[in-house]
Amino acid sequence: GQSLEQPSEVTAVEGAIVQINCTYQTSGFYGLSWYQQHDGGAPTFLSYNALDGLEETGRFSSFLSRSDSYGYLLLQELQMKDSASYFCAIHMDSSYKLIFGSGTRLLVRP
Amino acid sequence: DGGITQSPKYLFRKEGQNVTLSCEQNLNHDAMYWYRQDPGQGLRLIYYSQIVNDFQKGDIAEGYSVSREKKESFPLTVTSAQKNPTAFYLCASRDGQASNQPQHFGDGTRLSIL
After folding, report:
1. How far apart are CA B37 and CA B46, in angstroms?
2. Which listed residue, of A12, A14, B43, B94, carries a Cα 20 to 30 Å from B68's Cα?
3. Is the pLDDT reported for residue B23 higher than 70?
4. Average of per-residue pLDDT across A20-26
């Protein structure tokens, strides 16, 4: 089977940096994605890591360590609009399936 | 504009009734997916389809059925066998063979029991 673990909730101050961790267990692994979902909305894609290392996209960065089965999403210069749920998701294999974690709710305070 | 359209936005089901949720995409994507999301939870895969006329069960397929007769359309039927159907249903599509292609989501359908 597969499992992903991420913290249920994180709180940070506007302008700060926050890191959301994700650990996983799976028999097949192609890569790790991150999605953002605002309350009542659709998830939107943020980033993807297939290889070890850091991927940077503007204020957001994502890191993967395949040997540690671990990744994180780093959000810099936090803004109020970043308050949302963030999901890590495993790409299992060539079948295109994604397995999602239970999500981390980020609350950004003034 | 290209995208994924889910309808209706809200749906109510009576006991013993089957209901069908629509999902249409004009992104020319081969793969389509249905997820269920319960309050405060992650997304769980119900069914997915990689090509027309082919689909596979996800982790929670019991009580649901799908069809993929056209590339653009992937309707989900919630049958009376699904005893706890109240949830937020999300449809997604994806392009290409490369694993780094993201899934694009529709705005969802909220299903409730009358």
Report:
1. 10
2. B43
3. yes
4. 95
